[in-house]
Amino acid sequence: MDKLKRVLSGQDSNDDTNVLSETVSDATSLGWGTRVKGFIACFAIGVLCSILGVCLLWVPRNGLVLFAVFYTLGNISAIGSTFFLMGPLKQMKKMVEPTRAIATAVMLVSLILTLCSAFWWKNKGLAVLFCIMQFFAFAWYSLSFIPFARDAVKSCFSVCLS
């Protein structure tokens, strides 16, 4: 359990060269219990916002805008919940690692395009399409943290499609 705490809080690496990173980490450090509670609360808020957004899609007049806003806020909150576990700086660094960079870029572009399709283009179909892209990009990003999970999903799909 201590190894898991060290890995998730970013203390597992032996890189002592980045003094600024350590200073920021020390200044904003929370206890492990507080980190877990913050993660759970933020993730739960994200899931609730996403579910609420889907329910609001069929509201007449402003349903599309409400859907896009709540679904996007839900995904942002769910991603932000991981800041509690690893810390914001470490999480941002992990988001741009080569294994996660494409999923992160697709996720961020999908977030922006969802809001654009709701506010400016007022196209319900595009908003739903971009939300589906958000979902799959977030799932692919999340799988990158589980060892061999992406390989297992690729293998499963290749067997199903062949």
What integer value in Å does the Rg equal? 18 Å
The ordered string of helix (H) and strand (E) elements is: HHHHHHHH
Backbone structural class: mainly alpha
Helix content: over 70%
The number of helical runs is 8
Task: Give the overall pLDDT as a whole number.
Answer: 86
Q: Name the poorly predicted regions.
A: none
Please report the distance between the alpha carbons of the first and last residues.
41 Å
Give the CA-based shape. Answer: globular
Estimate what percentage of residues fall within beta strands: under 5%
The largest sheet, given as strand count, sense and whether it forms a barrel, is:
none
Number of DSSP E strands: 0
Descriptive account of the structure:
This protein has 162 residues and is mainly α. Helix content is 77%, strand content 0%. The protein is globular. 22% of the residues are buried.
Highlighted features:
162 residues; mainly alpha
Topology of helices and strands:
Layout: H1 2-8, H2 19-27, H3 32-56, H4 63-86, H5 88-95, H6 101-119, H7 124-143, H8 149-161
Helix pairs in contact: 3-4, 4-5, 4-6, 4-7, 6-7
Question: Summed up, what is this model?
Answer:
With 162 residues, the protein is mostly helical. The protein contains eight helices and no strands.
